[in-house]
Design goal:
The structure is a single chain. The strands form 2 sheets. A 5-stranded antiparallel sheet has the order 1-8-7-5-6, with helices on one face. It has a 3-stranded antiparallel sheet with strand order 2-3-4. It contains 3 helices and 8 strands, in the order E-H-E-E-E-H-E-E-H-E-E. 12% of the residues lie in helices and 35% in strands. The longest helix has 9 residues. It has one domain. The radius of gyration is 16 Å and the shape is globular. The model has no long low-confidence stretch (mean pLDDT 96).
């Protein structure tokens, strides 16, 4: 079974790096300099930011839907991030070393399945979830801090 992992679009965030501290505070965001790697996973490049890179930590509505499962949470975006262009069935390296929470949704944006998995077996678990034909897409979150990473769609 094929799937495609999609990141957030860089165009949605690039202008944020031109804002001053006060303007960022108004939207609940802060600029940070990365001081450990891994630790700052970018939701645009789907790569861990390197030590010394500038990132923005901000709130983001990652599940914009008219269902009880609409959701938002904090995300990191790298200043140099380009939108990830992943191949069919490709897993970003930044997901391999994390404990992940997978949440499968149907066409009405209702959660039909949820599980926690080590990133090193993410491919197998995605395929297992998509065996349920009701599941249209899967959100991948970091399990410990709970932050959104990306969406997985049927390929």
């Amino acid at each position: 079974m094929n799937f495609k992992i999609k990141s957030l679009e860089s165009s949605e965030f690039s202008s944020l790096f031109d804002l001053d501290i006060s303007a960022l505070e108004k939207i609940g965001a802060i600029k940070m300099i990365v001081d450990e790697c891994p630790g700052f996973p970018c939701r645009v490049s789907l790569e861990d930011a390197e030590i010394g890179e500038e990132v923005i930590l901000m709130p983001y509505q990652h599940h914009q839907t008219n269902s009880p499962y609409q959701a938002s949470g904090p995300i990191f975006v790298r200043k140099i991030a380009q939108t990830a262009q992943l191949e069919i069935n490709q897993i970003p390296k930044m997901l391999n070393h994390r404990l992940l929470s997978l949440r499968g949704y149907d066409s009405n944006a209702i959660m039909k399945e949820a599980t926690v998995v080590e990133g090193k077996i993410l491919n197998e678990k995605i395929n297992e979830i998509f065996e349920n034909e009701e599941i249209l897409y899967i959100h991948v979150h970091n399990a410990k801090p709970g932050c959104y990473n990306c969406v997985v769609e049927r390929g």
